Amino acid sequence: MSSKNNHQLKKVLIICAKGSIEDIYASLVLANGAVMEGIEAKLFFTFFGLDAISKKRMKKIHTATVGNPSLTMPGGIPFPTFLGILPGVEAGVSAMMKKQMEKLDIPPVDEFLDMITAGGGEVYACKMATDMFKMKKEDLTEHVKDIITVGDFYGLASGEGTQIIFT
After folding, report:
1. Which has fewest Cβ within 10 Å: 2, 11, 17, 144?
2. Which domains does the chain have, with CATH numbers?
3. Is the dihedral of CA 57, 94, 72, 76 positive or negative?
4. Nearest 5°: CA angle at 61, between 67 and 11?
5. Which run of H or of E encompasses 11?
6. What is the average pLDDT score of the chain?
7. ∠55-94-139 over CA atoms, to 5°?
8. What's the distance, CA 131 to chain centroid?
9. CB-based contacts of 15: which residues, under 8 Å, 6+ apart?
10. How many CA atoms lie within 13 Å of 135's alpha carbon, on the beta-carbon side?
11. Please, is 69 exposed, middle or buried when counting C-beta atoms within 10 Å of its C-beta (0-12, 13-18, 19+)?
C-alpha cells in the first residue's frame, strides 16, 4: 500500500453467494490475502455460498461444469459445457481441480477458514439464507461468528477505507 494514498484500504467485506469451488476459493483467497496484509476481513456467506461453511457440505464442493465458458480441457481446448450433464463428468472435473489445488498446496476449505480466523478474520452466515435452507448455527462450522441480517452486514462496513467485494 502506498504511503502517498490517504485513502488506504483498511477493511474488506467479502460476500460469497455461490457454492462452486471456484467461487468459494475466490472468497477465501481474498480474505486470507487481506488478513496477511493487515487488512480487516469479514466473510459473509449467503445462498449456495453457505456450502462452504456447512458441516455437511464443506468437504463436498465441486466445480461448475455446465455453463462455465472458461472451463478448458488439457491443451486449452474449450470444454463443451453440455458434457457436464453426463453422469460422472462433474465429479471427474472436480477431482482434477482438487488434485491441481493439492499440488499447489492450497488448503481445503476448513483449513483455509482456520487460517483466516486465526489471523483475525471473521466469518458470518446470512440469516435470510439460513432460514430459507432451514439451517441453524450448529449446522455450520465453528468458524462462523454469527448468523446476521443484511442490515447487520452493512453495519460492519462502517469506517473509512472499507470495500465490499462480491465474488
Report:
1. 2
2. 12-166 (3.40.1260.10)
3. positive
4. 95
5. strand 11-16
6. 86
7. 10
8. 20
9. 27, 44, 46, 49, 164, 165, 166, 167
10. 27
11. exposed
Please provide the size of the chain in residues: 167
Residue listed under C-alpha cell 483475525: 120
For 145, the 3-state DSSP assignment is: strand
pTM for this predicted structure: 0.82
DSSP state of 18: -
CA atoms within 13 A on the CB side of 87: 0
C-alpha 115/C-alpha 46 separation (Å) is 21
Q: What is d(CA 133, CA 27) in angstroms, rounded to the nearest whole number? A: 21
CB atoms within 10 A of CB 164: 15
The DSSP annotation for 105-128 comes to TPPPHHHHHHHHHHTT-EEEEEHH
Spatial CA neighbour of 65 closest among 25, 30, 21: 21
Mean pLDDT of 87-102: 70
Pair 36, 66: CB distance under 8 Å:
no
